[in-house]
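Lab meeting prep.
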Amino acid sequence: MSLSIMLFLIAVAILLYLDIMLICMLIINKLNSDGNSILSSKRKGFLIDALLGLSMDSMQTTKRDEETKQNGKKDVDASSYFDMKQSIQLDKLKKIYIESHIEINKLEKRQIRRLRSLFETSRVEAAVYLGLIGTDRAREELEKSITKEKSYPVKLYMANALSDIAKPESIPALVASLENSHRWYRDRVNMLIADFGKDFDAYLPQVINSNRIEIMELIVDFS
């Protein structure tokens, strides 16, 4: 057998080996993906039942609720719920029912700790979750953090979270966050503050005489 034929056969063998390896990797990834989907589906099963519109009365007669009565609150995956909450509008009763099965306090404490993380992505995620949780404590922690935060992208996430919670108590913290900030940040937060409408109108006399350029810009944008 000539050297050139031998080299050709070796090259073919290498290509076949690489093809087989690629196919195996694709199959493994597919299996992992399917497995994660199954686990995710099981974890979200309780949420899906509620979102499908089953009444609370009928749910109380199911085996699932019998287990809930015996074992206490059923553990609903909070991350999955809040991800769904961002894209699905729940009526008040379903919202109350689902959130009664979530350990809000535990989730809230964890996200408040993450507001002080060294990693920006962790602080961003914490701001988003606290905005969705929307409790008074979540709001107060966001108000404290937004004035201390050095990263303007993170500050903007905190401002958006406070805007989502939409409590007038947050207006002073949002206004204070404008001081010495970048113009692109001020432009965006000015719009968020303007969304408070009459509540900001009531707050306006407290800053109307300010000589700070950031406050004057805010007043012009609001008007």
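Slide two material, second protein:
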Amino acid sequence: MKVLIISPTLKIGGIEKALISVADGLTALGVSVTFFVCNGHKPGFDLSDRPYPVVWSGLAYNGGFLNKVKYTFSLIIRMREEIRQDTERRVLCFGDFMNPLVLLAGLWLKAKIYVSDRTSIDIKYAPISDLIIQNGKRFLYPRSAGFIAQTERVRKHMNQRFGQRLRVEVIPNAIKLIRGEAPQEREKSILYVGRLSWEKGVDRLIQAFAKSDAPADWRLDIVGDGPLRRQYEAMVENLGIAKQVRFYGYQQPPDPYFLNSSIFVLPSHFEGFPNALCEAMSAGLPVACFASIPHEAIIKQDVHGVVVPADDIDAMAVALKRLMDDPELRSTMAANNVEHVKQFEASKIARKLLDFMQLKPADV
């Protein structure tokens, strides 16, 4: 059987990364995958070594309201052409903005289209954008063949909203497991990897580290870039912890940082699915996060890491100090985590997707 995966871009982003992992996992199971890229901006991911074809829309959005409208209508037509080429293919798309467009493109065609939101149910868009997105979902999501919820939180939300009109299945992200050998003695480092923007809550991690009374030989390593980097650098100076905090900027791949650190923290206000948290666990790191993110199926308290109440920076500071002071606890959590996150391997997630899309091994 064949699957058409529709990706908004090939820029470095969570949706793109997730779709590539799915494409790789499905291909490894013998599925014929076509990877369609909507926006022709300069790619951040290189798929030239992949065994599946990458098809570009030939379109690019370069800013401006009229250009956006023109691009959107042109994209719907172009996607419809691609879907129509083989309506026996299952179609898979991720993203609040993209899903309604793909479903519009597939109206009255026989193709079965599966969609998945990749943002938190708590996220709020600008009023006009939110109105368009939510109404698009309301009318078009029930026309999909199924909705993939990343977490149980999302499944409950979608069931409350759509009831029996929408088929929903919980299937987490396929995670790129960190491979490689960690040094025998890891550096005394608390690690964050991700974008430096408001929703990621890095300011809360910096404040918690400052309050944790961290020993002088421990440091906070921040890997990533974004619009708030200068603000965070100034915060570190003002808190008097500049000697213990390092900003590394964007690093690709970040694997060496995962393998060399001792603790990973994801301080986000919200997440669709915490990829970086799972990647850190696969590298043998104990983890910490706030309860505001969907942690329930990932972290068992004091077994895999520490979950503190939402927005409680003091509690996070206490958690960090506890992990820094207890190497035996870190070692136990690390061993638990390496095995625990194997459930998110691409091949295992791909099999769950095949089942949900009603593609049996005999069909492949």
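Talking points for slide two:
The longest helix spans residues 65-84.
The two ends are 5 Å apart (CA to CA).
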